[in-house]
């Protein structure tokens, strides 16, 4: 089995910086703010021929035992339980603190194999680690996560007891997984939905907007099909994004949408459809990702309120008529199988392969039923069509004078192809390419 390594420590000791170095990524948010990481965050890494799974955690706050800090501590405890090895990070420049001592006591009681790692040790002498022997966790190892000093030597030591494994073909593995980003406004229930799907409290679900700041990936299986679920930070209106942390979170959310196959836009039925919901939907549409609209907290509405929400959906999200709308309750675990079936359908549509003969026949039928309008002295003539891409599907139409085709006719063709090939749940892009006139005089 691939070893699981948990990174723990008090806030702002450099756990996320080390996580990014160990995974050779920038998947964890890093900034000079204590408490930036809140959930467990998983990533893959490899040193030589030895792979590993590393878990970034939020900071321990043993003294404060209420609210979001209690939830963060609980997530770190779960990471320790899941791990084979714990890297306990302390700050070499700040020195030993009472909080470090309380965390050390917790780790000694856990019985987990623990390495004491003195971070931010660049430029410090060996005497800087002397005070950390007091933690009774063995030899302290000095590193600089930011500069990479001592990290490889530490990981060689950590991975020494574990056997080598053949590299897994990650590309083939990815092809069998559907990457699903859960996006929406803060407090719409995104983390609660993922917890309901996987059947555990994998993510912090707390009654406070903006609990999730990072884009967290969770592996999940449903009916023998593999998924990667991505819980994203809620997107606020630009005018309300003041803190640097919020700006980071918006970037991570947009990156998660871009990297996904299907996005579930989660709406809060109780709060109604806000302008920001439409803004997020517009970004998903621009990104070309397949989409399912999930209306959460549906069980809390009466018949009148449900009619009001449906009218709002039709009025404010009319440009998403191609997307499936599923009414769910994440807290009560209702409608989740309908949501996943809609995700599967949207994924199938986004990656559908369309043959040139079928597309051309559909194009001829469409133009026979309704000719493109005249422009200038003639009428655009469409000859054949072929597929130009997937996720989203792109249909390229070839012919003469196609630069004069109006946007209304483009929308007509989009609806025609969508109905013909059952492309529900995915955007569809139509491109026109005008054939060159072989008799045109060269300049």
From TrEMBL:
Pfam families on file: KH_dom-like, MMR_HSR1
SUPFAM superfamilies named among the record's database cross-references: P-loop containing nucleoside triphosphate hydrolases
Domain EngA-type G: start-end pairs: 3-166, 178-351
Positions contributing to GTP 1 binding: 9-16, 56-60, 119-122
Entries under PROSITE patterns matching the protein: G_ENGA
InterPro entries: G_ENGA (IPR031166), GTP-bd (IPR006073), GTPase_Der (IPR016484), KH_dom-like (IPR032859), KH_dom-like_a/b (IPR015946), P-loop_NTPase (IPR027417), Small_GTP-bd (IPR005225)
UniProtKB keywords: GTP-binding, Nucleotide-binding, Repeat, Ribosome biogenesis
Binding site for GTP 2: 184-191, 231-235, 296-299
GO MF terms held by the record: GTP binding; ribosome binding
Gene Ontology biological-process entries: ribosome biogenesis
Main function: GTPase that plays an essential role in the late steps of ribosome biogenesis.
Subunit structure: Associates with the 50S ribosomal subunit.
Family membership: Belongs to the TRAFAC class TrmE-Era-EngA-EngB-Septin-like GTPase superfamily. EngA (Der) GTPase family.
Cited HAMAP family: GTPase_Der
Name of the protein this chain belongs to: GTPase Der
Source species of the chain: Parasutterella excrementihominis YIT 11859
């Amino acid at each position: 089995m691939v070893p699981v390594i948990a990174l723990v420590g008090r806030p702002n000791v450099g756990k996320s910086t080390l996580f990014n170095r160990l995974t050779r990524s920038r998947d964890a948010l890093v900034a000079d703010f204590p408490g930036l990481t809140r959930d467990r965050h998983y990533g893959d890494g490899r040193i030589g021929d030895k792979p590993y799974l590393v878990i970034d955690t939020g900071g321990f706050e043993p003294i404060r035992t209420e609210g979001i800090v209690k939830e963060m501590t609980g997530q770190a405890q779960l990471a320790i339980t899941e791990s084979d090895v714990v890297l306990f990070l302390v700050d070499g420049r700040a020195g030993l603190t009472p909080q470090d001592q309380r965390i050390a006591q917790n780790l000694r009681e856990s019985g987990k194999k623990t390495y004491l790692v003195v971070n931010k040790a660049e430029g410090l002498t060996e005497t800087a680690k002397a005070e950390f022997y007091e933690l009774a966790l063995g030899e302290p190892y000095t590193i600089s996560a930011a500069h990479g000093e001592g990290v490889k030597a530490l990981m060689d030591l950590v991975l020494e007891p574990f056997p080598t494994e053949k590299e897994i073909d990650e590309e083939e593995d990815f092809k069998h997984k559907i990457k699903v980003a859960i996006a929406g406004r803060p407090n719409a229930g995104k983390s609660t939905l993922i917890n309901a799907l996987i059947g555990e409290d994998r993510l912090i679900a707390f009654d406070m907007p903006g609990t999730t700041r990072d884009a967290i990936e969770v592996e999940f299986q449903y009916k023998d099909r593999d998924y990667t679920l991505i819980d994203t930070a809620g997107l606020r209106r630009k005018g309300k994004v003041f803190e640097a942390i919020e700006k980071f979170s918006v970037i991570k959310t947009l990156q998660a949408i871009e990297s996904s196959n299907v996005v579930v836009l989660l709406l809060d039925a109780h709060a109604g459809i806000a302008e920001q919901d439409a803004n997020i939907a517009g970004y998903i549409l621009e990104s070309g990702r397949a989409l399912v609209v999930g209306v959460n907290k549906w069980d809390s509405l009466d018949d009148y309120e449900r009619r009001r929400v449906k009218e709002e959906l039709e009025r404010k999200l009319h440009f998403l008529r191609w997307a499936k709308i599923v009414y769910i309750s994440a807290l009560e675990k209702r409608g989740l199988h309908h949501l996943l079936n809609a995700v599967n359908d949207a994924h199938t549509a986004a990656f559908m392969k369309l043959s040139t003969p079928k597309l051309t026949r559909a194009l001829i039928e469409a133009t026979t039923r309704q000719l493109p309008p005249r422009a200038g002295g003639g009428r655009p003539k469409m000859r054949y069509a072929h597929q130009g891409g997937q996720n989203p599907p792109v249909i390229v139409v070839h012919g003469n004078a196609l630069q004069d085709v109006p946007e209304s006719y483009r929308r007509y063709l989009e609806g025609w192809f969508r109905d013909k090939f059952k492309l529900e749940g995915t955007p569809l892009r139509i491109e026109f390419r005008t054939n060159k006139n072989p008799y045109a005089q060269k300049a």
